[in-house]
Amino acid sequence: MLGVLAAIDENEIALAKQAIEQDLGGATGDVAQQMLHDQEANLEQTKSLGAAESPRAQAMRAKGKAAVEALSKTLTLPDGKDAYRNAFMRTMVIDHGDTIKIIDSELLPAAESAPVKQDLEQTRRVVSAHFERAHAVSSSR
Predict the structure, then answer these.
(1) Which of 2, 10, 26, 73 is 20 to 30 A removed from 55 (C-alpha atoms)?
(2) CA-based nearest residue to 130, from 32, 46, 4
(3) What is the CATH number of the domain that holds 23?
(4) Nearest C-alpha neighbor of 116 from the set 39, 4, 40, 2
(5) DSSP labels, 80-99
(6) C-alpha pair distances (Å), 141 with each of 23, 70, 72, 78, 82
(7) Among the listed residues 72, 16, 17, 9, the one whose alpha carbon sits nearest the alpha carbon of residue 45
(8) Domain range spanning residue 32?
């Protein structure tokens, strides 16, 4: 179960690093920096609780890799940086919305210890804040 959460964190870290490399600046750059900081901290905490590999975690990693590759392809478009910025923010809204659903429907119900449940609840708060911020930035475009 925690392996799935770790995979999600790893995906978001990869997306944030890719966005930071594009030097997007402004609110989008700020979102990427905040995500990198928060997701790295969350990944460390999740791993300390014993995140284990699973087929579901591997599937989440594959989905994340595909998202990174899809976003990189937007850079080849004529309006590459703007296309990337818009696709990145759209991806952040979708991914964070999906993560909230996964935490609520799969991970929290399966939590068997208080520390794991606390980690999931804290993660959900952070993910919700990222979702709200990404939605606000995306809507302002």
Answers:
(1) 73
(2) 32
(3) 1.20.1260.10
(4) 2
(5) HHHHHHHHHHHHHHHHHHHH
(6) 18, 21, 20, 19, 10
(7) 9
(8) 2-139
Q: How far apart are CA 124 and CA 68, in angstroms?
A: 23
What average pLDDT does the chain have? 94
Residue of 21, 4, 41 whose CA lies nearest to 130: 41
The two tokens of residue 93 are: 């809204």
Our count of domains for the chain comes to: 1
What gap in Å lies between CA 15 and CA 107, rounded to an integer? 22
One-letter amino acid of 55:
P
pLDDT of 141 higher than 70: no
Torsion sign over Cα 43, 46, 49, 52: negative
Residue 95 corresponds to which amino acid? D
pTM for the model stands at 0.92
Helix axes 26-48, 2-21, angle to 10 degrees: 150
pLDDT tens digit string along 87-140? 999 999 999 999 999 999 999 999 999 999 999 999 999 999 999 999 999 887
